[in-house]
From TrEMBL:
Residue ranges annotated for the Glucose-6-phosphate isomerase prokaryote domain, each copy included: 29-181
GO molecular-function term, one example from the UniProt record: isomerase activity
Record's catalysed reaction(s): alpha-D-glucose 6-phosphate = beta-D-fructose 6-phosphate
Pathway in which the depicted protein is active: Carbohydrate degradation; glycolysis; D-glyceraldehyde 3-phosphate and glycerone phosphate from D-glucose: step 2/4
Keyword Signal applies: no
Annotated signal peptide: none
Enzyme class, spelled out: isomerase
SUPFAM superfamilies, sorted: RmlC-like cupins
Protein name: glucose-6-phosphate isomerase
Length: 187
C-alpha cells in the first residue's frame, strides 16, 4: 500500500492571504453596495469602483456535509459617519451556522435574528465567533487597517440578502469621536 503526502492549503496569519491553487476571488466595490449605507449622498460621492472588501475562497466541494473556507478583507474607511461594512446576509438554509476567526485589524461583527434583535461582538486577531443558524451577520471595520476574518460555513448554506431589504436593526457610527451603535427601525 502506498500512502501519499499532500500539502494542504495554508493561510498566512499576518496577512490573511491563502496559499493554495484555484483560490476564488471577488471584489465588492462601493457601487455594489446600494442601500447598505444610510447616508446616500456620502455613498454617491465615493467613486463606484472603490474597493470596500474582497473575499477569497478555497475552491471546495459542494454538497451536504461539505464546507467552504473563505477570508474577508474589509478596508478601513467611512461613508458619512458609518464605518465600511460588508453587505451582510442570512443563510438561505436558515438553520446553517458559520464560524468567523479574527485574523488582523479590529472591528465588529453585527449579528441579528429574524425578530430584528441585534447584538455586536468585537473582532480582533484571535477572536472566535460562532454564528448560530437563523442569524444574519455583517463585518464592520472600525479600525485604521484592513480587517481580515477567516470564515468556515456549510457549502449548502447559501446566501439570502433579500430578507435584509430593510437593513439591519443597528448601525455603527462615529459620533463625537466615539464608536457608537445606533438602533434603527427600518434600515
Amino acid at each position: 500500500m502506498s500512502i501519499t503526502f499532500n500539502k494542504p492549503p495554508s493561510v498566512a496569519f499576518l496577512t490573511g492571504q491563502f496559499t493554495a491553487e484555484n483560490v476564488i476571488k471577488k471584489v465588492t466595490r462601493s457601487g455594489d453596495l446600494s442601500g447598505v449605507f444610510h447616508d446616500i449622498a456620502a455613498w454617491q460621492a465615493i467613486p463606484s469602483d472603490t474597493p470596500i472588501y474582497e473575499v477569497e475562497m478555497l475552491n471546495s466541494l459542494q454538497g451536504e456535509g461539505e464546507l467552504y473556507v473563505g477570508m474577508t478583507h474589509l478596508h478601513p474607511g467611512r461613508v458619512g459617519n458609518e464605518f465600511h461594512m460588508t453587505r451582510g446576509h442570512f443563510h438561505q438554509r436558515r438553520e446553517q451556522g458559520e464560524v468567523y476567526f479574527g485574523i488582523r485589524g479590529s472591528g465588529l461583527l453585527l449579528l441579528q435574528n429574524e425578530h430584528r434583535k441585534a447584538w455586536l461582538e468585537h473582532v480582533s486577531p484571535g477572536s472566535v465567533h460562532i454564528i448560530p443558524g437563523d442569524t444574519a451577520h455583517r463585518l464592520i471595520n472600525t479600525g485604521s487597517e484592513v480587517l481580515s476574518a477567516l470564515a468556515v460555513w456549510p457549502s449548502i448554506a447559501g446566501h439570502d440578502y433579500g430578507s435584509l431589504a430593510q437593513g439591519f436593526a443597528a448601525r455603527v457610527v462615529l459620533q463625537d469621536g466615539k464608536i457608537q451603535a445606533k438602533e434603527v427601525q427600518n434600515g
